[in-house]
Amino acid sequence: xxxxxSYITGSQLLSLKRRPNIxxxxxxxxxxxxxxxxxxxxxYASGNFYDKISNLVQDVKGKDTLxxxxxxxxxxxxSCARKFANYLEEVKEDTxxxxxxxxxxxxxxxxxxxxxxxxxxxxxxxxxxxxx
Length: 132
Ligand SMILES: [Zn+2]
Description:
binds zinc ion, single chain, alpha/beta
């Protein structure tokens, strides 16, 4: 059963994001450290994405929706989402993941629409604390 990967807009993500069963995966490389990030997002750099993929599977246990993004979600985001979908198919493990999505326009679109950006330096990101 091939998994389809679809796109989600920033405003859809903003409303989905309140649910506990969603994980946002930032696959930017070094940009994350100086540009900020979406609160609560996990960081799996595209550069060594495949090496860490089993950690990511562990990290998203219990989530059923994964949203991938990079800066523009044109190259790295979609390619990592696809790698992840293929990986799930290969391992045939029941992860409970139902949807693999890509954030349209990536972090850049998210930020330029004035959506909340977190600048914490904690790994993993502690999320919404401190934001209004
Ligand atoms: Zn943060």
